Neprosin PEP catalytic domain-containing protein
Amino acid sequence: MGWSQLTWSWRALLLVVFFWGLISLSSAARLGASRQKFEVKKRLKRLNKPAVKTIQSPDGDIIDCVHISKQPAFDHPFLKDHKIQRPNFHPEGLFDGNKVSETKEKSMPITQLWHVTGKCPEDTIPIRRTKEDDVLRASSIKRYGRKKHRTVPKPRSAQPDLINQSGHQHAIAYVEGDKYYGAKATINVWVPKIQQPNEFSLSQLWILGGSFGEDLNSIEAGWQVSPDLYGDNNTRLFTYWTSDAYQATGCYNLLCSGFIQVNSEIAMGASISPVSAYRNSQYDISILIWKDPKEGHWWMQFGNDYVLGYWPSFLFSYLADSASMIEWGGEVVNSEPEGQHTSTQMGSGHFPEEGFGKASYFRNIQVVDSSNNLKAPKSIGTFTEQSNCYDVQTGSNGDWGHYFYYGGPGKNPNCQ
């Protein structure tokens, strides 16, 4: 029966039903939007603690100086009565962060951009304020501050379908087959170009325990460019942890309870400045992560002077004892825009064979042994899914100890 054959009353009824449906949809949408707004507000309130002092960074970040006892870590039910620790032992090793060759291969000291406009008082820690837009960029409010699953490179047994499915690509050096109680590296800092906002490029070290299944424990630290997470293309210091292969536990920086910060000078997630330029000045950061033999917490140090804080041992299962694998290197997301390999760069965006001043490097890579000593790693392996896109080359010498150059441009004639 057509519209013209319906009686007037039937037509009126159908129109009422139609408009009622529209009203219901729009009120449901309004309800959904207000629910989302409420959830975002709740999340921001939990993350942004009351500040003793606020510093406006030149890059647009707001750094809140929060009293050390009010930081997000203490939202964790197990940390309600936790007494803030200091490390009992510090690993002894061959290289301090400043020991580099006095020739052209000299790198400069590095700081964070917000330092130019102020510093945090004693007994506070600097926290990068989370804004509404940061949370709204995430795939969901619940997933904000978390990595997507399966982002750890699994040397030797990478299956091609797994690589493409997860979209993550790596160029790393690694050691396995022993018990490791920490790792150190000095990491060259660049600003790689990111093709898509949902992609990232990072350079980090991984402290790994357990299998590569659902129970993987990981502590990670380094630098990253992530438009999705930070809303810009700045190079930023970051950390990450998980005790269940990125499923329900862990997060970046201080975006959940877990990592306890003790340092008032370095902000997790804040921009690093200055950064290296091609055939120009080179800058690097030194990161050390080690397990305190007495308390069992995993500590992190940035440079020679900044002990940043620790991951309490109870957060982990396998890492409560030791790590079974250490990895150093780069990672990017390849979302295959328009069916092609991404042109997101890793490291400097140049291949390892270009060498110093052009390719990105890790130098003085070391592991911490059971006696809490820093040692040169034995039997370093390397791994990359597609060496025509991103590659890695290792070496060693007197000044740099064990080192490697890594990275690449992504999409190029040999990488489609």
